[in-house]
Design a protein that fits this description.
The complex is a heterodimer of chains A (226) and B (215). Chain A is mainly alpha-helical. Chain A has 3 domains: 4-61, no CATH class; 70-106; 146-220, no CATH class. Chain A has helices at 4-7, 13-18, 20-25, 30-42, 44-61, 72-115, 118-121, 179-189, 201-210; strands at residues 159-166, 169-176, 195-198, 217-220. A two-stranded antiparallel sheet of chain A has the order 1-2. A two-stranded antiparallel ribbon of chain A has the order 3-4. In chain A, a hairpin with a 2-residue loop joins strand 1 and strand 2 (169-176). In chain A, helix 4 (30-42) crosses helix 5. Chain B is mostly helical. Chain B has 2 domains: 1-116, RNA polymerase sigma factor, region 2, helix turn helix motif (Rna Polymerase Sigma Factor, Chain: A), CATH 1.10.1740; 133-215, Winged helix-like DNA-binding domain superfamily/Winged helix DNA-binding domain (Arc Repressor Mutant, subunit A, Orthogonal Bundle), CATH 1.10.10. Helix content of chain B is 75%, strand content 0%. In chain B, helix 3 packs across helix 4 (42-63). The longest helix of chain B is centred in the N-terminal third of the chain and has 22 residues, at 42-63. Classes of the chains: A mainly alpha (226), B mainly alpha (215). The interface between A and B is large, with 35 and 44 residues.
Chain lengths: 226, 215
């Protein structure tokens, strides 16, 4: 920065640069222009500053201008068409809105009144009969004949089994004095996947021929009586 | 030229009535605006034709991204189309349209500063563009001249980009668009003193950046 006394001018560099834009653009007061001219004649630093600005502005103006791409107008056109569509839609909605909205409002009002009506709130309560869940009757699905029981735990004393031969095959009749045993048999029979019933008409036919006593039995998959 | 042909053929932007377009081209902005408000759809095309590239250059130098600048200019015209009926015709149309574009550019810069990803993408995009060969360069120049020219161009663009947002808008409006202080004050919504102050600071910063390059 040049010292003001060196150039014998009242304007300092900071004053010049503070008012530089107006001076540069030609909008400064004439008095300022006179002082600035005198300062520039004496101050090399401010002359340099002005030269740099002038050159920079020239470079900036010399930059190649950019132009809109070719799809600019179709895209703008497309957007404007949509604006017009939107405006038309809003207009049509505005004109036809009352006839559309009025019935809907009326229905909504009726429903609201009905919902809040005291008559509906004090409606008699319907007493429903209690729901009773009945347990299904126990089923006896298969029992070994007593002669094949090995005794002990498989031979309850309260069970009496009668096996008769009829024209249609062997019929076993079981009488139980304890229902808990029947329930036990019924409950556990189908839970064990290893258990199956071995029965066939051929078996009955063979039994008739050999007159051997062999009724359908329950065996486990492992071959041991259940 | 292709764009001009397209405009001439386009029923909205110029239309087949070349004579009508010539008439529109000879009247002032406010008369074109009045024609559009009176129902002449082609008048809007005339407004677009007058301001598209000017606005694009202004917004491009402000936001630094050409594609985004084009989107913002489109948005500017869409807003002009929507709100032209509310435009105060006692004011200058150019000031109004520049104000819209300037506000959109300011919003863009604000959003970008809040979103680092967008900023990074823009920088990356500009970096890639800067490192492509410049097709408009004169091949008669020597390699040193070409390098210097490209370097100078880059530095000038960088110098503009480095200016603070508010200084940059004022600087571009003055140096590139040639707007007066009063017009800049109207566009930016600032007082005249603020415009002068910002412009002075912007010029000072700009001169400091490019001073080493200018001999």
């Amino acid at each position: 920065m040049a010292h003001p006394l060196q150039y014998q001018t009242p304007m300092e560099c900071s004053d010049f640069r503070d008012g530089f834009s107006d001076y540069f653009d030609g909008t400064a007061e004439p008095s300022f222009v006179g002082e600035a001219d005198a300062h520039l004649a004496a101050c090399e630093s401010c002359r340099r500053y002005q030269d740099v600005m002038a050159r920079g502005a020239e470079l900036l103006k010399g930059m190649p201008p950019v132009a809109v791409s070719e799809d600019f107008f179709p895209r703008l056109q497309h957007r404007i068409y949509h604006i017009e569509d939107g405006a038309a839609l809003i207009h049509s909605e505005a004109t036809g809105s009352w006839t559309t909205v009025a019935p809907a409002l009326a229905i909504a009002l009726v429903l609201a009144v009905a919902a809040w009506s005291p008559a509906l709130i004090r409606a008699p309560r319907v007493a429903l009969p209690p729901v009773v869940v009945s347990h299904p009757e126990p089923r006896l699905v298969g029992v070994r004949p007593p002669q094949l029981w090995s005794g002990g735990e498989f031979a309850p004393s309260s069970l009496v089994t009668t096996i008769e031969m009829t024209p249609t095959g062997w019929v076993s009749t079981v009488e139980l004095t304890s229902t808990s045993f029947v329930a036990t048999v019924d409950h556990g029979l189908w839970d064990d996947p290893r258990v199956f019933v071995r029965y066939s008409p051929l078996t009955a036919s063979a039994a008739r021929q050999t007159r051997s006593i062999e009724a359908p039995i329950l065996v486990s998959a492992a071959g041991s009586p259940r | 030229m292709a764009a001009n042909t397209k405009k001439e053929l386009d029923p909205r932007f110029g239309g087949e009535a070349l004579e009508h377009r010539k008439q529109l081209g000879e009247i002032t902005d406010s008369e074109v605006v009045r024609a559009f408000l009176d129902g002449d759809e082609r008048a809007f095309g005339e407004l677009v034709r007058r301001y598209d590239n000017r606005l694009l250059n202004f917004v491009y130098r402000t936001v630094g991204d050409r594609e985004r600048a084009q989107d913002l200019v489109q948005e500017t015209f869409v807003r002009v189309y929507r709100h032209l009926a509310r435009f105060d015709q006692s004011k200058q149309f150019s000031t109004w349209v520049y104000t819209i574009a300037s506000n959109l550019a300011k919003n863009e810069l604000r959003n970008r500063s809040r979103n680092p990803l967008v900023l990074f993408q823009t920088i990356k995009k500009n970096w890639e563009a800067d490192h492509q060969p410049l097709e408009w360069e004169d091949t008669q120049y020597k390699p040193d001249d070409l390098f210097r020219k490209r370097h100078l161009k880059e530095k000038v663009e960088e110098a503009v980009a480095q200016l603070p947002e508010y200084h940059r808008i004022v600087f571009v409006l003055r140096e590139l668009e040639g707007k007066t202080y009063e017009e800049i004050a109207d566009i930016t919504g600032c007082k005249l003193g603020t415009v002068k102050s910002r412009l002075n600071r912007a010029r000072n910063n700009f001169a400091q950046i490019i001073a080493p390059l200018v001999d």
